[in-house]
Amino acid sequence: STANTEPLKFAHICPYTGDFSQYGTLQKNALLIAIEEVNENGGINGREIVFDYYDDKNVATETVSIANKLIGQEDLLAVI
Fold first, then answer.
1. 76: left (phi over 0), alpha (psi -120 to 50) or beta
2. pLDDT tens digits along 44-68
3. Among the four 15, 40, 53, 70, which has the fewest Cβ within 10 Å?
4. CA 39/CA 75 separation, integer angstroms
């Protein structure tokens, strides 16, 4: 059998704009550093890590809306 080489997909939901955007920006920057390091060292079991970033603006209804969009994505490994 052939090894799976598809990227490992993750999503990050956080406020990147509006109130508390500094927290979303800090988290995103930390993730970017970690992802770059992991991918430069061969990823996880040879699979690259890929993140999509979603801005919930620190609004609960926006967070729920984004989560509902992501629920059906079978190729998405986890949401942070």
1. beta
2. 999 999 999 999 999 999 999 999 9
3. 40
4. 18
